[in-house]
Amino acid sequence: MAEVSSGSSFIYMSADNVKGLILALSSSLFIGASFIVKKKGLKRAAATSVRAGLGGYSYLHEPLWWAGMITMIVGEAANFAAYAFAPAILVTPLGALSIIVSAALAHVMLKERLHVLGVLGCVLCVVGSTSIVLHAPAERQIESINDVWTLATEPAFLLYSFSAIAVVLVLIYHFAPSYGSTHVMVYIGICSLMGSLSVMSVKALGIALKVTFQGVNQLIYPQTWFFALVVATCIVTQMNYLNKALDTFNTAIVSPIYYVMFTTLTIVASVIMFKDWDRQNPSQIITELCGFITILSGTFLLHSTKDMGDN
User: Fold this and answer.
1) Is 51 strand, coil or helix?
2) Residue 209 CA to its chain's centroid (Å)
């Protein structure tokens, strides 16, 4: 056993994967806390003006909301760096930790009671994420932004991208005005679909910066700036509709559902674009799927026990 541990810190994990893991864990802590701080800011803003869920933007004048945004930016920066070192199929599932952080803080700070089965749900999220992390594939070797562009313009990923954008437009212009305030899946669907595209672009930018810091400038290529534009567009859209979701629905509902949808769509996008599963054997893939099902079970418990409190 000692021989195995001295040879490698984690089975199936390269040095870059370990760096990505550490960055992703830090990211989840900051992002989980940011949900609660932003929620408190939204509540303060709603007490004196139009709620964000009804189209108000008074939260932009609320310092507490900005504190939450800064916390989220720090977390997203760590997440950005993580994607430069590790595949999305490793980094993204660690968002389960942000669910646990936000659920625990909501229990203490927002008095959104967490039932004992909700605690079990958190444990299942951790177990599932651990299973995925330990069997994640090594990062694909990419030497320039042009390599990423080649992957992004293959027919399969183009089909996914256009389909995601079409669904988002339908949700924004048809379903959100009528059902956004009563069906959480509308706002979360928009955030998750845009999120999956932003992660792929963030990963492309992260790779470009990593290669640039290694001495080969990637900022001279228009593809780099195209990915930057996609990231900016997606993040603005995500933040707008995530604010609406947080202001309209309970945090204990928004966080896990957002995590499940965002993680699922991001893994699908990564498998299509970077062909993560091509570098794995069937046993690893099955283990990852089992881990993801475990995470889904945990989020189901969190969702189904949201109103049970201590009773």
Assistant:
1) coil
2) 21
pLDDT exceeds 80 at position 195 = yes
**What is the token pair recorded at 52?**
């964000």
Contact criterion met (CB below 8 Å) for 260 and 48: no
CB burial of 226-251 (b: ≥16 within 10 Å; e: otherwise) equals: ebbebbeebbebbebbbbbbbbbbbb
Query: Cα Rg for the chain, rounded, in angstroms?
Result: 19
- DSSP-derived letter for residue 249 is S
Q: How far is CA 203 from the centre of its chain?
A: 13
> Is 298 in contact with 125 (CB distance < 8 Å)?
yes
Taking the alpha carbons at both ends of the chain, their separation in whole angstroms is 46
Neighbours of 261 (CB within 10 A): 19
Confidence (pTM): 0.75
Residue 170 DSSP label: H
Question: By CB neighbour count within 10 A (0-12 exposed, 13-18 middle, 19+ buried), where does 29 fall?
Answer: middle
Q: How far apart are CA 197 and CA 13, in angstroms?
A: 25
CB-facing half-sphere around the CA of 240: CA atoms within 13 A:
13
pLDDT digits (tens, 9 = 90+) for 98-145: 777 877 787 777 777 777 777 888 888 888 888 887 887 777 778 889
Pair 29, 37: CB distance under 8 Å: no
Q: Is 99 exposed, middle or buried (0-12, 13-18, 19+ CB in 10 A)?
A: buried
The amino acid occupying position 306 is K
Assigned token pair, 55? 């189209």
Displacement of CA 17 from its chain's centroid (Å): 17
Cα separation, 50 vs 42, whole angstroms:
10
Q: Which residues have a Cβ under 8 Å from the Cβ of 194 and sit 6 or more positions away?
A: 164, 168, 234, 237, 238
Contact 260, 82 (CB under 8 A): no
Q: How many CB atoms lie within 10 A of CB 211?
A: 19
